[in-house]
Structure prediction request, 397 residues.
Amino acid sequence: MDTLTIDLADPEYRFNPWPVYRRLRDEAPVHLVRDGTWDGEDFYVLSRYDDVSMALREKNRFSSQIRRDDMLNFPMLVNRDAPEHTRMRHMTNRSFNARLVSTLGEWVREIVDGLIADMLTKDRVDFVEAFAEPLPLRVVGGMLGVPLDRKADLRRWSGAVMDAFAVAAGLDPSLVPGFLEDLIEFGNYMEELAAERRGKPNRGDILGELVVQQEAGDMTRTELTTLAWSFVAAGHETTMNLLSGGFHLLLTDPALARRLTDDPDRTPDFAEEYLRLCSPIQWLLRRAKQDVELHGVRIGAGQLVHVLLGSANRDPRHYPDPDVFDLDRPNALDHLAFGAGPHFCPGSALSRMQVDLAFRALYPYLDRFRLDPDAQLSLWERQGSYGFAGLPVLVRR
Prediction:
């Protein structure tokens, strides 16, 4: 049998990881990759559901702060442990709370309707460019006070945040030149926006809530900037990939499309099962805080660990027929696509709300869209992200 290897730079592993995941779960549920990062660090890979869930939840055994002594030690939520993470998460929850999300429905619905109306005027569109990307960017950008004319910049800044995660995981930084400069530019811009808000009434958006906390002395300027980075990461990538992948599934599975069109209240089930099957974020990172032994393999304290969400969500030990999309799957909500434990994604409620409103609005028009048979579908090349980079569709007017 071929030697089981993982190369983070291999496009085949990024675009079609499922065969590798299957072998990992069956042959090496704790797999050591020698010299696996760009700077030659070893890392371990966890692939089974129970192990991945444990690593995400047990904060005494695994640390989320994977970098400490270099420029990649970004003070983001995903890269911090308690008590610092607890404090930052409290600030996040105050700014990004359920009350705020519950007030956004009508505004998000207007954005959705406008994007659909624009697509219906065209003969051909790229669904990612026309809908799946701009919807979450407009929503998170609007909540951070970023004007529409900075949309292209926000897209670039969002990409820089994801590239920073990939570099921290082991990607050669020379493959994503300029990401650090883009992060700094975004931070400086958010500080400018915050400065304009100080001393003025709170507009009730995320930026307003952050400024209130800063003015009260509960948050530093650096923390405001880094929370803005976290909001962009939490509010964009997963939603974009879920929208594009879900739309592709609807166009290629007419029976499923009819079922959802006839019963749109099943949309949340549709979204959760897609998140399980094609997790938009395929893995997260941890460091062992102590020696951990799993399946006869010892992970030493301080070792880097890749926690494969995408593999866990297709583990047959937890999900019967895991490679099949099943709208009626009883335990679909067990999926780990939003993480688990203390670092469960703070943007999950906003993402779910956008996706629910978007697909409900798209169902009546599905018969006017079809995949462009002459176009080549493309997936994102960004490490750790799974979704369509382009989804060309023909539109019947």
